[in-house]
Amino acid sequence: MMATAAKHAPMNLLQPTVLASLSNLELVAKAVVEGFVVGLHRSPKFGFSQEFVEYRAYTEGDDPRYVDWNVFARTGKTYIKRFLGETNSHLMIMLDSSASMGFGSKGVTKLQYGKFLGASLAYMASRQHDAVGVMVFADEVMEYRPPASRSGSLQGVIHTLDKAQPALGTHLGKPMSRFQERIKRRGLVVVISDFYCDAEELLENVRPLAMQGQDVVLFHLLDADEINPNIKQSTLYEDMETGHSIEVSPVYMNKDYRERIQAHIASIQKAASGMNADHMLINTGEPLDKALHSYLTFREKRG
Amino acid sequence: MSLITPLFLLGLLGIALPWWLHRLETQTTEREKFATTRFLEASKKRIHVQRKLRFLLLMALRMLFLALLAFAFARPILLQDPEAAVTADTTHHVIVVDSSFSMNQGGKFAAAQERANTIVNGMGEADIASLYSASTNVATITEPTADAAALAQDISTLEPGNGRLDLGAMISSLNGLVDVSDANFVFHLVGDFQQTSQAVRFADMIPDVINGRPVTLDIQQAAAVPEANYTVDSVVVENRATVVANVRAFNADGAGSVERQVSLSINGVEQQQQTLGIPASGAYLVQFDAVTFGEGDNRVDIALSPADSLPQDDVRHTVFDNAPPAPVLVLTDDPSSLGLTYLRAALETAPRGYSVDITDVSDFDMRVMQRYPWLIIDDIGIVNPTLDAGLRDYINGGGSVFAAAGPRTGALDTMPLLGTAITASVSDPRAAPAQISRIDTTHPVLSDSSGWSAVNARVVRVALDPSDQILITQAPNFPVLVERQIGAGRLLLLTTSIDNSASDLPVKPVFVSFVAKAAQYLSNEKLLVKEQLADSFLQLAQTGGASGQVVDPDGENLLSLQDTTIAQDVQLNKRGYYQVFTPGGEVLVAVNPDIRESDPTPMPPATLQNWQNVVAGTAPVETADLADNAGASAVASTRDDTLEEVEIWRFFLVLLGLMVLAESLLGNRYLNMKTGSF
Which carries the bigger pLDDT value, residue B85 or residue A217? Predict the structure, then answer.
């Protein structure tokens, strides 16, 4: 038990509130990924790996950092190292920065959590030399950075994520069509959002990506108070996107609302399943590594 | 409402307790931001509002409960006014006693008081009465009350005055004075009902309908048989040496010719006496010759003896102003001109009386101007530059000049004193004169404008300054009379002549009054009417200034020190001489009753009966009936003369009981709703 406790001690660093206290998003990503990877028995086949597989002749355009200079010294030929699971694909992180993502009841907003998650995923992809891009969207595309694997692209992605601020409403149509226009190559598309949209709208806008051959993963971020609210008295709630105010009784909020939000989650899940996309519901009150672990386990099982 | 123990009102502070407690219990709605409201039910808002309203109602009930409790302990009482209980079954007796001058005659007023008392004693138990005294004005003596003793006391304090009663004015005043209520109104008019007191219009003597019901008019005539009365109607002083008095007899048809002594007193000293037989009905002129007067105001008294039934009007007071005529300087170049003749005649016949000092301009010493408050120039064309400068200094210093534009003016290019150009002259005698087109009747000189329209004149057309006041204009637009203020004085310029060469003004009747008013205006004199009727008001401004003191015939000062500077008028309600002291000197004002009050002839019985019938269409209330009810007076007089105190704390207790019930029900409902809703 002591060993387990000691092993889990660093994990406390991954509590969202602790991460929120770190001002450097790159540092957050590094802390999450390094601590997380160390805890794994071996690298899963999730597309990111550090295990060496083979050499391949250097061709123009390859990153010179991966040239094996020992081989060059011995043979006089330039080879670069290839790793297990390296797919030479790209990771596209789509982060929802709508006003509703600014909600957070435990000190960390969903947007902050999404930034941590996106940065961590980007960091993991960068470790195995995959190209990483990012798109921050709300009603419109707010920021866009195409996938790239060259040096410094990770910092660019993290900087773009870091700049995101909650604004406007949620609308998936324009960001998805923009993505389709620009990205023709197949890869992993991670959508981080609270998905306050209809399941039909989600299907309509995301299905083309799946049809395009993209591997779509939906990270459905919800605050603990959004999933299981517990209020003691009538409360006047103001919609963060529309500004509309509604007074709600505790009876309704603690019972009827929960049923409704669960039904909504189920509908999103069903829609994701319908287009062969992965759906991960993440409670932003839980540690980030736990969420990542759950996802990687899920991916691993899925094969 | 009053309170017996008002200290308990401090308990009202207790209403702060529920307010404070309810503030603690009040749940203010939490306002929070939420990611989305798409899954929330907005309809629950209604529940909160209802709860809050009930909550406030409960708080209000609790606060009211405590307030009522505090009031109940303070023992509130209602002071019940007998009039407040007036109903349609109540009779309001409006008793009006004539206190005019004529009621001094014989035993009229005592009889009137007795009749008024009879009315009071005849009041029913539920009746109320109010008492008024009617003379020149109607005064409220007693407000509506059921207290017969108080009414009788007030009746006994009434006295006849010196004013005149007009029945129309009296009814009009009563319409405004009587407090309208649901009671039946009976107007009891007690007096001598002189024929002379009847209103000019009979309709003015009809009281207003009260609450849709006509009032009942009860006429109580105080003197069934009128007595004869002799009085001095008027006194006139002629030629400063003769006094003519008019002695009249009223209602003396049955008495025949009566011998009376008529005496004349000047300033309290009897100078002459005559014995004459006064005819039964009519007037008799008495003349006293070679009367000697003192300088200034003289007190002229004509007295009849022996005294009759109304001795107060046996003496007539008159003031004769024996002041010497005021001197007026007239500058001319022709002392024998026709214009001067007209001017002198007009001035000497003016009410004030002026003595005209005619001076040839060639012999004129300008230093004498300062002796005169104002002067006349019969032709302004005679003013040379030296005289012009001297006259300007004179006017600047406060003097006034009345000047006419005679033949010499027509030869000038510039109008003296005005200094403006003469655009056309009156030199052409063949030019047709024109009529007056506009008169400023607001100016004191022209207050009596009748006769000016008949005046024809040829005028000197002179340019004027904008500040000049044009008082008379001739068609099409030529000034005839112009006033200019120069320093402290003024110039009144007639742009035509005062002889009949260029104008027919001197031969028109308006000329005399115009000259008299111009003299009064320019000399800054204000005439005081030195003979007034009793109960009239003396306008102090007429005495030459509001600052002054008035001493009544009994030698009492009427004005306080403060009033001597602010009082505008004083009522003259005594017979005799009032002394009015002003900065300009002492003035006497004689006050006599209205001669119509001396005529005791009553209104015909048919007229009185007709009056009662017209007012109510009902039979008059008989005095005998009232007397029959006198027995009830004992009951009425034993009534408590203070307002009845009614304690109302019992009502508060009943209200408190209801409040407790309501509070319990509402509180219980509120608690049920609270647990069931959340």
Answer: A217
Chain B contacts of A196, Cβ < 8 Å? 35-36, 38
Per-residue pLDDT at A8 exceeds 50: no
Residues of A with Cβ-Cβ distance to B38 under 8 angstroms:
196, 239
pLDDT on residue B677: 33
Whole-angstrom distance, CA of residue B311 vs CA of residue B93: 34
Percent above pLDDT 70 for chain A: 76
- Name every chain A residue with its beta carbon within 8 A of the beta carbon of B673: none
| Closest of B157, B161, B81 to residue B117, by C-alpha | B157
pLDDT for residue B95 is more than 90 = yes
Helix or strand run (H / E) with residue B553: none
Name which of A36-45, A219-228, B485-494, B518-527 the model is least confident about: A36-45
Collapsed DSSP state (helix, strand, coil) of residue B227 = coil
List B34's β-bridge partners, or say none.
A239
Nearest CB neighbour to A252, from listed B32, B33, B44: B44
Determine whether the interchain pair B29/A245 forms a contact, defined as Cβ–Cβ distance below 8 Å.
Answer: no
3-state secondary structure B455-522: CEECCCEECCCCCCEEEEEECCCEEEEEEEEECCEEEEEECCCCCCCCECHHHCCHHHHHHHHHHHHH
Digit-coded pLDDT (tens) for A158-167:
888 888 888 8
- Return the biggest CA–CA distance within chain B: 123
Best residue of A247, A251, A252 to probe chain B, by most B CBs closer than 10 Å: A247
Identify the weakest region by mean pLDDT among A237-241, B109-113, B164-168. Answer: A237-241
pTM, entire model: 0.48
Tally Cβ neighbours within 10 Å of residue B206.
19
* Beta-strand relationship, B282-288 and B297-305: unpaired
Which whole number is the average pLDDT over B442-457? 82
Report cis status (omega within 30 of 0) of the bond before B351.
no
Q: Any CB–CB contact under 8 A between A195 and chain B?
A: no
Peptide bond connecting B82 to the previous residue in cis, omega within 30 degrees of 0: no
How many CB atoms lie under 10 A from the CB of residue B460?
28
Identify each DSSP E strand in chain A by its residue range: 52-57, 79-83, 90-96, 131-137, 141-148, 188-193, 215-222, 235-239, 245-248, 278-283
- The ipTM assigned to this model is 0.73
